[in-house]
């Protein structure tokens, strides 16, 4: 790998920031092109609106589970440092319908203190439950930390709106990484029609006494309670159209799932209501590379890393490591072809 390889990462969500940091730390000269950065608020800038905690499906999913495992190990190590905004807490997952597992969940030996909750201790209407130590993310703090780490490592940022990926290819670069999330559907030269928005809504409340993650999953809903390092708690979730009635439903479901939220009070101290558009994709996350020519005929490696839906934080380090692997493989192939 050439120490002089120049990279543009498009997008400054959790995937873009993490990928840029990984590449910068591995000797690349990286610049982030993005319309929105940490501290901004926009319905299409999803990362700041996320829950977020490390959570996975109970059944192993090829490729995806490996990305989640890599990410868990990295997030776990980073959670030793309070400045990251990451925090270790016990997580309780309840399922209304017992999952068809061949044994225990795939991550049993990955996460600390895993146990299956006895049936007698499950909430009414729940058929399966498990608990383990997981990680929550104070999203605003963590995104700022990623950006600061990237800049301190020598990375650069540029606020810009791109209408076509060729605008990045025509810069003085060797590699472009597409981490545009929901914008991958409309970005010229990509226009991936398998990308679609999944609406989400959360309610942020002040409840510093809550020190556990709770998740309940039904046939057509998910309810979650995710404490953050700064004392606020994120309540969710929803897959349909967000509105005030949805917010009221979220609060009702979350206080039933985690009664200590209310501390006997009639009303929770609500800080904000957040609405976001998760970058979903038919077929799952796209992490793949290709070779394109810019307007001057120069070969540019383009690596795509988008379509994470609600798994952006849970897969961020694994996805970034995979993108790095694809880029380095493409560079070696270019070098071999140049010698032939």
TrEMBL record:
Which SUPFAM superfamilies does the UniProt entry name for this protein?
FAD-linked reductases, C-terminal domain (SSF54373), Nucleotide-binding domain (SSF51971)
In the UniProt record, does the keyword Flavoprotein occur?
A: yes
Q: Where is the FAD dependent oxidoreductase domain?
A: 6-319
Cofactors: FAD
| Positions contributing to D-dopa binding | 224, 278
**Pfam families, from UniProt?**
DAO
Which keywords has UniProt assigned to this entry? FAD, Flavoprotein, Oxidoreductase
Q: Name one GO molecular function term.
A: D-amino-acid oxidase activity
GO terms for cellular component: cytoplasm
Its Gene Ontology biological processes? D-amino acid catabolic process
Q: Which residues bind FAD?
A: 46-47, 180
Q: Which family does it belong to?
A: Belongs to the DAMOX/DASOX family.
Query: Know the name of this protein?
Result: 12916_t:CDS:1
Q: Which species does the entry assign this protein to?
A: Acaulospora morrowiae
| Lineage, top ranks | Eukaryota, Fungi, Fungi incertae sedis, Mucoromycota, Glomeromycotina
């Amino acid at each position: 790998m050439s120490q002089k390889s120049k990279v543009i990462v498009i997008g400054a969500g959790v995937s873009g920031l993490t990928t840029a940091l990984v590449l910068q730390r591995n000797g690349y000269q990286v610049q982030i092109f993005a319309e929105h950065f940490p501290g901004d608020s926009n319905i299409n800038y999803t990362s700041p609106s996320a829950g977020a905690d490390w959570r996975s499906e109970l059944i192993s999913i090829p490729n995806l589970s490996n990305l989640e495992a890599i990410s868990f190990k990295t997030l776990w190590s980073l959670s030793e440092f309070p400045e990251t905004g990451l925090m270790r807490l016990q997580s309780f997952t309840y399922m209304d319908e017992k999952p068809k597992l061949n044994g225990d969940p795939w991550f049993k030996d990955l996460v600390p203190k895993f146990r299956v909750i006895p049936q007698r201790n499950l909430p009414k209407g729940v058929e399966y439950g498990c608990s383990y130590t997981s990680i929550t993310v104070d999203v605003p703090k963590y995104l700022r930390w990623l950006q600061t780490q990237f800049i301190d490592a020598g990375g650069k940022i540029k606020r810009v709106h791109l209408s076509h990926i060729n605008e990045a290819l025509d810069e003085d670069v060797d590699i472009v990484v597409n981490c545009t999330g929901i914008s991958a559907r409309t970005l010229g030269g990509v226009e991936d029609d398998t990308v679609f928005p999944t609406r989400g809504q959360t309610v942020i409340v002040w409840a510093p006494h809550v020190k556990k993650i709770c998740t309940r999953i039904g046939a057509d809903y998910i309810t979650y309670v995710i404490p953050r390092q700064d004392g606020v708690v994120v309540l969710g979730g929803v897959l349909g159209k967000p509105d005030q009635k949805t917010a009221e439903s979220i609060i009702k479901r979350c206080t039933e799932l985690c009664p200590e939220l209310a501390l006997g009070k009639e009303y929770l101290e609500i800080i904000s209501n957040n609405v976001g558009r998760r970058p979903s994709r038919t077929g799952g996350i796209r992490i793949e590379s290709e070779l394109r020519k810019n307007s001057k005929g120069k070969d540019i490696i383009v690596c795509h890393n988008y379509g994470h839906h609600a798994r952006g934080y849970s897969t961020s380090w694994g996805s970034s490591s995979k993108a790095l692997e694809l880029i380095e493989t493409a560079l070696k192939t270019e070098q071999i072809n140049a010698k032939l």
